Amino acid sequence: MSDSKFKNPIVAWIDYRLPVFTFMEHELHEYPTPKNLNYWWNFGSLAGIILVIMIVTGIILSMHYTPHTALAFDSVERIMRDVNYGWLIRYVHMNGASAFFIVVFIHIFRGLYFGSYKSPRELLWMLGVVILLLMMATAFLGYVLPWGQMSFWGATVITNLFSAIPIVGDTIVTLLWGGFSVDNPTLNRFFSLHFLLPFVIVGVVVLHIVALHQHGSGNPIGIDTKSPQDTIPFHPYYTIKDLFGLGVFLIFFFGFVFFAPNYLGHPDNYIEANPLVTPPHIVPEWYFLPFYAILRSFTADALIFLPFSWLMTAKLAGVLAMFASIMVLFILPWLDHSPVKSARFRPIYKQFYWLLIIDCFILGICGAKPAEAPWTYISQAATAYYFLHFLVIIPLLGFFEKTKPLPTSISEPVLKGGGGASVAAGAKPMEKA
Amino acid sequence: MRKYLIGAAAAVSVVVLASNGAMSAGDAVKPPSQNWSFSGFFGTFDRGALQRGFQVYDEVCAGCHSARLLAYRNLTEIGFTEDQAKKIAASKEVTDGPNDEGEMFQRPGILSDRFVRPFPNDEAARAANGGALPPDLSLMVKARIGGANYLHALLTGYKDAPKDTNLPDGMSYNLYFAGNQIAMAPPLAEDGVEYADKTKATVDQMARDVTTFLAWAAEPELEWRKRMGVKVILFLLILTGMLYAVKRKVWSDVH
Ligand code: HEM
Fold this sequence. Notes:
The complex is a heterodimer of chains A (433) and B (255). With 433 residues, chain A is an all-alpha fold. Chain A is 61% helix and 1% strand. Chain A contains 14 helices and 2 strands; from the N terminus they run H-H-E-H-H-H-H-H-H-H-E-H-H-H-H-H. Chain B is mainly α. Chain B folds into 2 domains: 2-69 and 138-220, Cytochrome c-like domain (Cytochrome Bc1 Complex, Chain D, domain 2, Orthogonal Bundle), CATH 1.10.760.10; 224-255. Chain B is globular. At the A-B interface, helix 4, helix 5, helix 10 and helix 13 of A face helix 1 and helix 7 of B. The structure holds protoporphyrin IX containing FE. Protoporphyrin IX containing FE binds at residues 51, 54-55, 58-59, 61-62, 65, 76, 90, 93-94, 97, 100, 135, 138-139, 142-143, 145-146, 194-195, 198, 201, 269 of chain A.
C-alpha cells in the first residue's frame, strides 16, 4: 500500500479496496481535454448542475406538497407563504426548469454548429436526445402539479393528443387520466412520475458521460487531438473555467429568481384549476412553443398536410410531426455525412445553421400566437422548412458543399496565408479565409 | 460570430415580448403603467398605502370578495401592532365547531384565523351577485396580465357605455375588463371610506391603496425577496470576478 499514488493514508486505504479515488483522478484530473474549447463548451456541466439543483429543490417541495385536486393549489401557496424559505425553493425550482431548457437548447445548438454528433460520438448525441425527451416529459408533468388553470388545461390538451392514435388512442388517454377526464387520479400519477423521471435522467446522464469520456470532448475545430500538446488536464483548467461560467449563469438565474420570478410563467396559473372555465388562450410553457407550433400547423386545409391526408387525420399528422421534429435529431448523425465536423470549415452549412435558428425562433413565436391567419401560414411554412433543413438540405450538403481546408492540428489552428505546407494533405485547396 | 450572437439575443427578446403580447385579452385597452412603491430592484411596500388599502378592502371589497389565503396574524407584517391585529380579528364573526354538543357556533376571530369569507360558498356568492362570482382576491395581482397596473386601471376604468352597446341588466362598462362588460358595479365612490390617517379618499387614491394592499397579499415575500436578491447578486458579482481572475491565472501557461 505504500506504493499507492495517494499520500493520505485513509484515502489510500479506501482506494486499495474501492477504487473511487483512482476513478476520480482518472476522470477528472488525468482526463485529457482539448485545450481550445470555447465557452459554448460550458453548457454541458451547467446542465448537470441544474439537474442537481432541480432534484434538491424538488425533494424539499415534495415534503410540503399535497397531490390532491382539492389541496394542491393551496399547498403550493402554503409553501410560498408559511414554509421557511419556501418561496425561494419554489421559485428556484420553477425558474430552474426554464434555465434547464435554455442551457440544454444552447448545448444542443452548440452540437449542431460544431458537428458534435459525428463519429465516434453518435451514441453520445443520441443519449442527449433521450435526455431532452425525458426533460420534456418531466417538465410537462411538473407543470401540472400546482393545479392552476394552465396546469389543468395544458394537461387536458396534451393528454388528449394521444387520442389521435388509431384504435388504441382512447384507451391510452383513459390510462393516462386514470378515469374519464383529467382529475385526481391524473394528478396523483403525474406527481409520482414527476418524482421518478429526474432520477431516470440522472441514469441517462451517467451513460452520456461514460460515452463522452470514451473519446473525449470534441472541439471547435473539429479535428482529433493528435499529440499531448493539443490537450490539457480537465482539472484545474476546465474546473475553473466551468466554475467561472457557473458564476455568470447564477447571476442571470438569480436575477430572475429574485427580481422577476414569474416573468416566464403565465398569470393564469395563479388561478386554481376549474374544469368549467376554459382560459381564452391555452399556451404551454415557453420551451414547448416551437413544438406546439409544429403540432398545430397540421390542419385539415394545410398544404403540408396534403401529402399525408390520404393516410391519417390532421391531428395525428400534427402529433407525429411533433415527435418527428425530435426524432430527426436521433438520425442526424446519418443524415449529415459531410466528413468535416465544425461549421467553421463549412461555409454553406454555416448559413443554413443560422437559418435553422431563425426558423426555430419563428416557430416559437407562432406557438405563442392564437391559431389564426397569418400565424397559421407562417407556422406551416416554418414547420416545412424545419424538416426541409434536416431531411433535404443537410444530406445534400454532404455531397455538394466545398469545405475549407482543415488545419493540421489543434496547436496550429490558424492557417497562415501562403504557407502551403501547413495545409492538411487531405483537404481540398481553396481560397484562404 | 459575434454579429450573429447579437442577432440571436435580439430575436430572443422579440420572442419573449411577442409571446407576452399574445396573451393579452381581445378588445380591452392595455392598462397604463403606474409608479408603484414596490416595483424596481429596491422596491418596498409603502406602509401607509398598505394600511389604507387594507381599510378599503375590509370596508368595501370584503362585502363580496374573499381573500382566503390571508390570516389576521399576517396584518402585523404590514405595520399593524399585534393589539391592532387582534382587535381587527375580534371584530369578525368566525364559525367554529363542532362543540361538545355537536353544534357549530360563532365566536370572535383570533390571530390564527384566515380572513372571514363574505359568503359560505360560491353558489351563495353567485346568488347575491346576479349570477357572477366575485373571485378571491388573495392572488389577483399575480393572476392577471398587467398585475397591479391592471387592477388600478380596472377600479378606475368605469365609463359610460358607448351608444351602440347594449348593456344587460347588472352589467357595467369598463374600459380595461376583457369584453368590457363587467358584473361588478363600480365599487369605489368618492369618500367611500374615511381614512384613519385623514388622507383624502378619492377614487384614484383608494384604487392605488387597495392595489398596493392586494399586491402585498399576492406576494408577501416581495420585500424580503428583493433585499436578499440584492445581496446574492452582489456576492455573485464579486465571486465571479474572483473566479475570472483565478481562471486567467490558471490558464496563463496555455496557448
Ligand atoms: C428534471 C428535473 C425537473 C424539472 C425539469 C422539473 C420541472 C417542474 C416544473 C416546470 C414544475 C412546475 C413549477 C410551478 O409552476 O410551480 C415543477 C413542480 C414540482 N416539482 Fe419538479 N422538476 C424537476 C425535478 C423534480 C424532482 C426531482 C422533484 C422531487 C423529488 C420535483 C418535485 C416537484 C414538486 C413537488 C412540484 C410542485 C410544487 C410547485 O409547483 O412548485 N421536481 N417541477
